[in-house]
Amino acid sequence: MWQQVIVAVIVAAAVLHFCTRYLPAAWRRQIVYFLSRRGFDQNRMARLFRTQSSCGDGCSSCGSCDSAPAASSDAPPPSTPSQRVIKLHVQR
C-alpha cells in the first residue's frame, strides 16, 4: 500500500518536472491559463511553468538582445567583457 503511494508521488513529481521543463512554451501557457481558471494563483503558476518573459524572448530587460555598437561610435568600451572565456591548459 505505502509503496504504491510513494511510487504515485514520485511519478507525479516526474510528470510535473517534465511539464515545467520540456513542454513547448505555448502548451505551458495553456496549462497556466487552465489552472488559473480553476482557482490557482496565476503568478505562482507562471513562475512554476516558466512562462514569464525571460532572456532571449525580446523583452529587452537584460540588454543581451541589443545590437553591438558601431566601430565609429565615440562611446568608451565597456569596462567588463560581455563574454567570459575559460582557458583550458592540457597537461600531458
Automatic annotation (TrEMBL):
This is Uncharacterized protein. It holds the Pfam family DUF6587. Residues 65-74 have a biased composition (Low complexity). The lineage of its organism: Bacteria, Pseudomonadati, Pseudomonadota, Betaproteobacteria, Burkholderiales. Residues 65-92 are annotated as: Disordered.
